[in-house]
Amino acid sequence: MPRKLRIVINTGGGDAPGLNAVIRAVVLSAYQRGWEVYGSRNGYEGLLDTDQLVRLTPEMVANITALGGTILGTTNKANPFELVVETVTGELEKRDVSDKIISNFRRLGLDYLIAVGGDGSLAIAQRFYEKGIPVIGVPKTIDNDLSATMVTFGFDTAVSTATDAIDKLHSTASAHERVMVVEVMGRYAGWIALHSGIAGSADVILIPEIPFDMDKVCRRLMENELNGRKYGIVVVAEGAAPIGGTITAKTSTEPGRDQVLLGGVGENVAREIRARTGKDTRSLVLGHLQRGGSPTTFDRLLATRFGAAAVRFIEEGLSGVMVANNPPGMVPVPLKMAVERMKRVPLDSDTVQTARDLGICLGD
Fold this sequence. Notes:
By secondary structure, the protein is an alpha/beta fold. It has helices at residues 19-32, 45-48, 98-107, 119-130, 155-176, 191-199, 214-226, 265-277, 297-315, 335-338, 350-357, and strands at residues 6-11, 36-40, 53-56, 83-86, 92-95, 112-117, 135-139, 179-184, 204-206, 232-237, 249-251, 260-262, 281-285, 321-326, 329-334. It has a seven-stranded mixed beta sheet, with helices on both faces. Strand 14 and strand 15 (329-334) form a beta hairpin. Helix 1 (19-32) packs parallel to helix 9 and helix 7 crosses helix 8. It is elongated, with a radius of gyration of 22 Å.
């Protein structure tokens, strides 16, 4: 009889609706084949401290598909190749603990790592693959900015959450004759802003791919006044920037987190609109609301398909690949290729053209 495989799965980076559906699909698909599955808590913590490694059974994952977050926990500030630790003198320094993780992986008799994450987490998984660990990647990001897959799970739920918020803002903006500026996530890609803005009947949508002109933004909002509509809705992606300007961000001071933290552009845009038009203008940052809550039906199914495909790829003997959604099926793509280029909104896409056809201002 073939040897029983032992798989370990982790979830890294920011959470996304659908992570638990992936975990469930991996566990059930593996057990159908007589294999064992273990979960590494908080990214690679379970492989660094094996007390944080948990055996996952079908009974444990029976009812988790509808849950947001991840039963394994996650982190975006514990890169095992640059882990921040405190020395005996109280100082912080970065250490490479990847060899210890590899040693534990082999000592425990594990055969495969399924790494669920975005570009940062999958880049770490690629480094472990290069050091000899068999890896299958599963793409996860609400930002939908991974180029090797048509769509990532979590995106549909984030867009639905943002659209619901925009729908609610129409009534309060109308009642007070205000302009409401809604800042949504997306990092350096405008997928969430564009999709939720169109679905939510926004007047203006500002995305990172199109530097915006505040004069044109204000002109579009004043057109509402001329047409007897005394309020406006502006949706702005957190990575959007004005022509000749830069993104609004600050540098993280958290240990182990060197990346810039995007945010604040919504308030800047609201301030400019208020000053230029005299309109009562308020801003709202949706923030982590877009990551939370129960995944939509679309994301539950998509995440489940990703997890089942990851196990099939293991059965086929593949490694160093990411599961990619390439309709109508799931296909393997090299991990290295999957993380080398960000997927941004194509300016010639039908979705962008639809926004223009509807008279939505994109800031240009």
